[in-house]
Design goal:
Pnp Oxidase, Chain A; 26% helix; five-stranded mixed sheet; nine-stranded antiparallel sheet; UbiD C-terminal domain-like; binds flavin mononucleotide; globular; alpha+beta
């Protein structure tokens, strides 16, 4: 399915707001997306470009689950299964993403958004990058990229990412920045799996996709994406990257990062640009959610009956984790905490809850902390460990951070008050209020 086809189903179900009035890619679109979040929005009339823009499409687990036709609880098993049972996508010629092959490269024709006054320039924030290495084969990553001329961008490439590894090994790497993707490709690109695994096969196991050969680089790309920018990233040719807002909604520092030389632009005839607000919920959900299966697996491997894991948006969808377990032994909560920290090294605070707590409800999570937690027995402190480089409060330079876990499960054999929430009588309101 193309993103446009999905947007049409949202329109049929009244689940997307359409902005027909003229609007600028310079701050205005980002402002409207922020105001309407998490509501999907389609901008039909962009001042600076002939192309439409859509955003806020996958801001929470409910929207992602809706796309796949599953429940939120089924996301972790579905993703875990796709990571293990990868499958090869179909290959096609005459792909939708190559309906139009532009003669010359002019990035100014695209509605690349300026999201915030402090931004260093227009930024691609939803770009899925296909790259390859002679030994490892193809890889999929996200890399934001800032435009600084008609055919040049600078990409943020964090050390340790597979793409960074490819650049270090080869110096220069051909790439395809694919923009306008549906969740199977977006989620697969955000998973961190063993180097050498082609994440497009994870995408295909989530929901069948089609691949096509790129026009000027030797790469297989998602055939149904909206836009493709083909070119080459050069490690030693650098440019200022930033400022830009990172996942924690704080302003990232300006760095010297590798240049992306754009050689070819292809797109669908009626292509829709995918906007993604940096630091906001869509960025957060794509970053955090693909880590949940890894945490789930680690807890399960300890023999604990884990029911669900949620990397919460309030914790920048990276630093905070809520875990739901079916407690069988008194130390299950603390064991689950240790396992969860092992499953996500960037996690800073983790909470474990019983099966009766809705871990997607802020109020219920706080209620469990208030009524089932005692700091002298249920708190796990991990002093000065390596944590997330994104956390502004981590020790400058070393990025060491103090982590802690909260066991909010009830005592199995309680001697005091009941831990259960009292239930009010169930009534049929029609009987008292009429039809
Ligand atoms: C919306 C979004 C934007 C991201 N932007 C960047 C980025 O600019 N640079 C980067 O190195 N990683 C970025 N990431 C993170 C990586 O792409 C992601 O962690 C990926 O799983 C790394 O894959 P790898 O293990 O194959 O290297 C972003 C992730 C998301 C979801």
């Amino acid at each position: 399915m193309t993103l446009e086809e999905y947007i049409k189903t949202l329109q049929q179900n009244g689940k997307i707001t359409t902005v027909s009035k003229s609007i600028s890619r310079n701050l205005e679109i980002a402002g409207v997306l922020k105001k309407l979040e998490p509501e999907p929005v389609l901008f039909e009339n962009v001042k600076e470009s002939e192309f439409r823009v859509a955003g806020n499409l996958f801001c929470n687990k409910m929207q992602v689950a809706d796309y796949f036709g599953i429940t939120t609880e089924e996301i972790i098993p579905t993703l875990s299964n796709a990571i293990v049972n990868r499958s090869e996508p179909e290959q096609i010629d005459n792909a939708p993403c190559q309906e139009v092959i532009e003669d010359k490269v002019d990035l100014d024709m695209l509605p690349i958004l300026i999201h915030n006054k402090i931004d260093g320039g227009p930024y691609i924030s939803s770009g899925v990058v296909v790259a390859a290495d002679p030994e490892y084969g193809q890889n999929l990553d996200f890399h934001r990229a800032m435009q600084f001329s008609k055919d040049r961008m600078v990409a943020r490439v964090v050390k340790g990412r597979d793409f960074h590894k490819f650049l270090e090994r080869n110096g220069e790497v051909d790439v395809a920045f694919c923009i306008g993707n549906t969740p199977e490709v977006l989620i697969a690109a955000a998973t961190s799996v063993e180097t050498g695994i082609n994440e497009l096969e994870i995408a295909n196991a989530l929901s069948p996709i089609r691949l096509t050969k790129a026009k000027t680089v030797d790469l297989m790309i998602p055939a149904d994406c909206e836009f493709v920018l083909e070119g080459r990233v050069v490690l030693e040719e650098k440019h200022d990257e930033g400022p830009f807002i990172d996942l924690t909604e704080t302003v990232d520092v300006v760095r010297q990062e590798p240049i992306f030389k754009v050689k070819k632009i292809t797109h669908r005839k009626s292509a829709i640009w995918q906007g993604l607000l940096p630091g906001r919920s869509e960025h957060k959900i794509l970053m955090g959610m693909p880590r949940e299966p890894t945490i789930f697996k680690k807890i399960k491997e300890r023999g604990i009956d884990v029911l669900d894991v949620y990397i919460t948006p309030g914790g920048a969808s990276w630093l905070h984790v809520a875990v739901k377990v079916q407690k069988k032994n008194e130390d299950d909560g603390l064991q689950a905490l240790e396992a969860a920290f092992a499953g996500h090294r960037s996690a800073k605070h983790i909470w474990v809850y019983d099966e009766d707590i809705d871990i997607y409800s802020d109020e219920e999570r706080e209620w469990a902390l208030a009524t089932r937690f005692q700091a002298d027995e249920d708190l796990l402190i991990k002093d000065k460990e390596a944590g997330s480089s994104l956390d502004p409060s981590a020790e400058p330079g070393t990025k060491l951070t103090t982590k802690c876990g909260f066991d909010c499960t009830k005592i199995l054999d309680s001697k005091g008050k009941s831990y259960e929430k009292a239930k009010f009588p169930e009534v049929d309101l029609k009987k008292y209020l009429g039809e």
